[in-house]
Known about the structure:
Elements: E1 2-3, E2 6-7, E3 11-16, H1 26-43, E4 47-50, H2 64-74, E5 79-86, H3 92-105, E6 110-115, H4 122-128, H5 140-152, E7 175-180, H6 183-192, E8 196-199, H7 207-217, E9 232-240, H8 244-262, H9 272-282, E10 295-298, H10 300-314, E11 318-322, H11 328-341
Parallel strand pairs: 3-4, 3-11, 4-5, 5-6, 6-7, 7-8, 8-9, 9-10, 9-11
Antiparallel strand pairs: 1-2
Helix pairs in contact: 1-2, 1-11, 2-3, 3-5, 6-7, 8-9, 10-11
Amino acid sequence: MTVSGEKTELRLSVLDQSPVAAGSSPGDALQNSIALARKVDALGYTRFWMSEHHAMDTLACTAPEIMLARIGAETQRIRIGSGGIMLPHYSALKVAEVFRTLHALYPGRVDLGIGRAPGGGPVEAMALKRDRKSRPLDDFPEQVAELLAYFYKDFPVGHPFAGLKVSPEVAGAPDVWMLGSSMWSSAAGADFGLPYAFAHFFSPVHTRAAIEAYQRNFIPASREGARSRPEAIVAVGVICADTQEEADYLHSSVRVLQRRIRTGDRRPIAAPDDALRELRAFGDMAVEEGEWPRYFVGTPSVVGERLRNMASDLGIGELVVNTITWDQAARLRSYELLAQEFSLS
């Protein structure tokens, strides 16, 4: 897509999940995440977010806040953040303290993306619960309100936490984002007046409906620094390579990953040759359910055009890119090619 003969400006960010490649270790995956953060910082990406997943051989990052503390020191300008913190597992005060600490270390660079998904299966969710005797309580909206009140000191008069100091006490606060992949999260982001990130690569069915509902129903909040207008971004899967054939070859690892997830198989990322053998033996269970594919795969020009069209259709100015490959060099190259296509700097 072009405007007056020029390509439309579109900001690009990164969501990293520390994928573990077959034949390597989770420690290697975490080091790869640090190297990727340095790379995309230099390339001109806007944000570097890390996800939270538990008890998986596939993904190594269980504690994004720890990784962000290191990554902030390894980068110069890129915003760092969680994509996201699964708030139901934690007290709102503890999350506020952790991210205020990150904000004190890297002022003006920290995003706190919050979600209510477990980040694992039911057993992991139970193990993460502090109180396992009571019935599950969905008090996520109350947790969000409490978290925001800690950052912006707007507890109601007489509230028991109104005088509580959230240390370290410094000017400003992390930028809080609502994350999700459903119409529920869309409504929550609009109701709280928060910026909203939709995980299209995870659940592509409701992408347009969720973004448009959020934009239509957004209610500006009165707290300090709040958005006056809706701000939405969408996280998409991308694999770029110098040729379509190479991109398709690399994508085979993701196709097997998606097939395995559907059967509860959480093994590390398969090498492309092994992935192709598995696909030939067992078939490909992938079914594209949404308006756009979960993963955009191809040369930079092909992928770039499709990403621009998607962003234009949704009326958004930023996309978050999630790239999983078996080979770290291919992953770095994919982000490099995409940065060149979008003239990031």
